[in-house]
Amino acid sequence: MSALGKILRKPIEFVSGEYGMAAVLLLLCILFSVLTIEEKSPEGTKAGNKLTDDIVKLIEQDSVNFPKEIRVFIAAGKGKSGEDFVDSLGKGLDSKGINVIGKAVGDTLRIKKAIQATGEIDLIATTSLMRNFPVFDSFLGEEREVIRASSMVVNDTLIKGEKTTLIAPRTYLWPIFLTPVNLRNITSQIAVIAILAIGMTMVIITAGIDLSVGSMIALSAVVATSIIEKMGGAAEAGTSVFLIASLAGVLVCTLSGAFTGIMVSQFSIPPFIATLAMMQVLRGIAFKIANNETISDVPANFQWLGNGLSYGIPNCVILMIILYTLAHIMMNKTQLGRYIYAIGANAEASRMSGISPKKIKLIVYAICGATAGLGGIVMASQLQSGAGNYGVTYELMVIAAVVVGGTSLFGGKGKVLGTLIGAFIIAVITNGMNLLLLGSETQMIVLGLVILVAILIERLRSGEWRNAVGG
């Protein structure tokens, strides 16, 4: 082994090991957390509580300029956040015996009139968002300074003017990537791809591939929404209609997957060719059913699966977790799972052992169709509509998730939970690049390189590249 090979061996073995991709996911999260750090401001009740503490400490540190008898006016923009800020700050200052002589919540004109009507004010407390609004200029006067003394706990949130002083909550640094909204977006956005990747993992473990999953997303979505439209639409369709429509969409895709499985197993058509043909056929059928239009006559509560929350967790993510749990049990604890691995490792040896590769492949492609159908229902629910152009290029993202998750394109190796990690790696990379405002062309280059590196790592780890012809 060359010196370079010895150097690279351990990192490659670690990354391709059981916990390697999880470590990569963690490192990516850390990287994008660092790259997306921005100055943020507290809002609502949290901002009011923090500013209460700052004003109390300010009085304790500089009792000459800010005695406990200071007259405080509280101002905030309209909306619930502003109301919560004024309410919490007012109660906090009252509890400390600090004199609040006026409050105003609303637009700048209303705040200006309220301040004018109040009389002499020593300190105006407002939100970080309103701190630089010109409404306060006339009350601060011509000469003003931002107090930056290191001993001041409020730092640069204190603007001292000729007539009064303006104070706002302290800002802080926090990664946009780690905000609850963004993390929830990542899980919701990856749910469809992750669900599809369950079936794709099983197909690839058998040394096959399915390029038709993106088209099956569109087919399932169109079938479900067209049934809802015909059985009452937005006005009359209820839960039973949703269930029937969803089952129909999944069933159609399951049968489509089974048909592909027959083509591959019974007629020995290469999976790439068979699924490439089905990709075109199913996409065309989806457009036909939808009449080249978007079907949107569905009730708002159809979004429950795609956009609804249960205990703060997106329902589509809960479905994804359930499916991955079942798939993990099936692949590791059942006879079918063992047969899938056996066929991928050596189909001929499996046949001689009494396993039917044709039957197993048919089942696997049918499962892949079913998961694609479920993904289509989730997407239709998220977008509250169905169209023939749904799921375009999704097959590439799904294959990328499976490969990055450690499943070998040559069959026989792979784990469902590894695929889930791979799906999150793809989602984190995509989300991180969006937050960094990188263009779509850059994202395509990066994702392509990620797939290539994942395959290269797998080949280097296995050592099979040495057996290539001409090597």
Q: Could you characterize the architecture of this molecule?
A:
The chain is elongated, with a radius of gyration of 30 Å. The strands form 3 sheets. Strands 3-2-4-7-6-5 form a 6-stranded mixed sheet, with helices on both faces. A two-stranded antiparallel sheet has the order 1-8. A two-stranded antiparallel sheet has the order 9-10. The chain is 62% helix and 8% strand. Helix 4 (80-95) links the parallel strand 2 (71-76) and strand 3. The longest helix is centred in the middle third of the chain and has 27 residues, at 239-265. Helix 8 runs parallel beside helix 11, helix 8 (213-230) packs across helix 16 (357-383) and helix 10 (239-265) runs antiparallel to helix 11 (271-290). It has 2 domains: 44-170, Rossmann fold, CATH 3.40.50.2300; 178-467, Orthogonal Bundle (ABC transporter involved in vitamin B12 uptake, BtuC), CATH 1.10.3470. It contains 19 helices and 10 strands. It is of the alpha/beta class.
